[in-house]
Amino acid sequence: MLLLSSFQFSAQKLERVLEQTEGFSPEAFKASGRCFPSPVSSVSEELKRYVEKLKLDGTLRSCVEKAEG
């Protein structure tokens, strides 16, 4: 979940910077799933699926548990 949260935080920071850019469209930046998903929502959804896969196969647990010894 940390990876997903980090990405979402970075996307929010990027959006704030881009808002200062002429021609930037916050609606397009945030658009999700209508005809074409935004790059941010696409990556966010992909990260969610990947984290869920890591949870299900036990990889995530083995990465965050303390090693015995």
Automatic annotation (TrEMBL):
One of its GO terms (cellular component) is MIS12/MIND type complex. One of its GO terms (biological process) is chromosome segregation. PANTHER family: KINETOCHORE-ASSOCIATED PROTEIN DSN1 HOMOLOG. This is Uncharacterized protein. It comes from Callipepla squamata.
